[in-house]
Amino acid sequence: MAEVSLVGLTKSYGTNRALADVSMTIPDGAFVVLLGPTGAGKTTTLRLIAGLDRPDAGDIRIAGAPVTADTPAQRDVAMVFQQYSLYPHLTVRENLAFPLRSPVLNWPEAEITRKVGEVAEVLRIAHKLDNKATQLSGGEMQRVSIGRALVRNPRIYLMDEPLSSLDAKLRADLRIELKRIHAELGATFLYVTHDQIEAMTMATHVGVLDAGRLVQFGTPREIYENPVSAYVASRLGQPRINLLPADAFGPAPAGAVQIGLRPEHVRIGEGQPATVRRVERLGDQTRLHLTMGPHEIVTLTDPHTALAAGAQISIRPDTPLWFDASGNRT
Amino acid sequence: MSAYSITEPTRRSKWVAALLVTLYTVITLLPLVWIISTGFKSGQDSISYPPKVVFQPSLEGYVNLFTTRTRVSSDEFGNLPPPATWYDEIVRDQGMVIAGPSRFGERFLNSVIIGFGSTFLSIVLGTLAAYAFSRFKVPLKDDLLFFILSTRMMPPIAVAIPIFLMYRSLGLSDTHLGMILLYTAVNISLAVWLLKGFIDEIPREYEEAALIDGYTRFQAFRKVVLPQAATGIASTAIFCLIFAWNEYAFAVLLTSGTAQTAPPFIPTIIGVGGQDWPAVAAGATIFLLPVMIFTILLRKHLLRGITFGAVRK
Ligand SMILES: Nc1ncnc2c1ncn2[C@@H]1O[C@H](COP(=O)(O)OP(=O)(O)OP(=O)(O)O)[C@@H](O)[C@H]1O
Ligand SMILES: [Mg+2]
């Protein structure tokens, strides 16, 4: 339960700049999702907040107090690592109890047993409590890692792709479970994911990182509807935003070099002729792959559409996004 | 344990492997069998030619090992009271009487103190140093590691004279502490290098998780790193113990009275009352036991340790 502010955080590993001048203020109780391609600096951001690495420059404040000189234990955060964080020499039960037995908490055994049981129930691993940590599947290990964070009640939860190796159903269930825990505890969450749905449904705020820089920070809606650049626009949205030369549909505003069309920005029925190449029925959505002259466009359509490959249709843009030569919004 | 390889070896290659392993075992065990059996032979049997494979077992060697004996004239011999104990009787059968205990027990105890003491010290210091080299930014790390290794680039005995002089002026000659320090100094480079390899293999995330969970670095080291390094520590300890246990040259040079270990003592048995091979063999047999027991106790860790992490669960 704390506001976190990052001010001008910079971190290099050797000559490799992992984070460059990242500033953001995470309100108390926010659920921040960090997005960005691999190597963008998401894990680095979490490690700096946790105190596992020291920033080269910049400041980290938790609840208003600078913590840069504090040890990880003093910062009172919990972290779910991207990989390897279960102690292989301990059982699942001992792994879950480990944080509660630490000198800072040192709970009585009865309390530990109760809490471990409760968290194991939530994460559906109660039947594996007596397994060695090495005798688990990838998804089970991941759930135990989450559990190690959930047994405590820290000010900040840092989670690095915690649901990445779970099956779709479990992922959906745990997404809801985490969201419930977030609402219940009111703790601040920083959450890294590559998953669109997780980002959109769980986040109160989204931070988009690109090569160590924070390019946009805002609500998921803002990021989706009002991206500052073509890069940010392509981070969110399934299918991805279509980026075409600005003049693909005729005259463009001054300075615009690219037009960005989300699937819902493509109006079917009038405008430029296009050919249906493929109809992709995914169950919950039906995608149309179109070619319009030299350009390829993906859009969504009614699940019961009669359109088939080869069909000729007309399309026009509806409230598109315009980007300039360096990819920024005009 | 389950199979690690996708391709199960064929029946024939398994047979060949079994044959080779058996052959090798027989060859390496033969000297051991010889020593152990000689320890239970009588003086006569021990030098008979061709060697006796089947013989009347006797504890003469062991009794002689632990005692000093004197020969008495035949008139006196007749006047002696009947032997009081079974070992008195064995000595009488050789035409002698027990004069007192030998120093073997003491020497053996010295070996235990010095061998295990230096192993313990090497492991403690080696683990801490290896952890620091593995995890922290140590200035001149590579040079320091090379320097540590370079102490093994010549045979230790090459510096025997300086060490002898140094020990004499420091008053460390013929002391337990001196021998423990010496063997530790020789073993520590091996310990640091081996253990650094093992600790390097333990992902940092484990300790980092513990740090975040509210443990101090030292507690994280103890609760997370040490248990996972157990395999490496066990195999390193065995290497260190074997060196310190068997070391002969420095022991001859630097010890004579209080701190003499078993290796320089065993050959001196030969001189006492003729060539007493059964006693020598008995001494060697007892001398073998601690390392053997130590290795057997740690063998669970050893397989994974000696293959340097190549076999992983
Ligand atoms: N310990 C390290 N030593 C050297 N370089 C590192 C280290 N950790 C991270 N980096 C580099 O810093 C950059 C950012 O890494 P980071 O782990 O933060 O990426 P990420 O956004 O978490 O990526 P992913 O989605 O793949 O997990 C990368 O270029 C990476 O190679
Ligand atoms: Mg990462």
UniProtKB/TrEMBL annotation, chain A:
It comes from the Bacteria. GO terms for cellular component: ATP-binding cassette (ABC) transporter complex, substrate-binding subunit-containing. Keywords: ATP-binding, Nucleotide-binding, Transport. The keyword ATP-binding applies. SUPFAM superfamilies: MOP-like, P-loop containing nucleoside triphosphate hydrolases. It comes from Paragemmobacter straminiformis. Residues 4-236 form the ABC transporter domain. This is ABC transporter ATP-binding protein. The keyword Iron-sulfur does not apply. InterPro entries: AAA+_ATPase, ABC_transporter-like_ATP-bd, ABC_transporter-like_CS, ABC_transpr_MalK/UgpC-like, Mo/tungstate-bd_C_term_dom, NA-bd_OB-fold, P-loop_NTPase, Transp-assoc_OB_typ2. Belongs to the ABC transporter superfamily. One of its GO terms (molecular function) is ATP binding.
TrEMBL record, chain B:
The keyword Metal-binding does not apply. Residues 108-298 form the ABC transmembrane type-1 domain. InterPro entries: BP-dep_ABC_trans_perm, MetI-like, MetI-like_sf. One of its GO terms (cellular component) is plasma membrane. Keywords: Cell membrane, Membrane, Transmembrane, Transmembrane helix, Transport. It comes from the Bacteria. It is a multi-pass membrane protein. It is found in: Cell membrane. Its main location: membrane. Pfam families: BPD_transp_1 (PF00528). One of its GO terms (biological process) is transmembrane transport. The chain crosses the membrane at residues 15-36, 112-132, 144-165, 177-195, 224-245, 277-298. SUPFAM superfamilies: MetI-like. Belongs to the binding-protein-dependent transport system permease family. This is Carbohydrate ABC transporter permease. It comes from Paragemmobacter straminiformis.
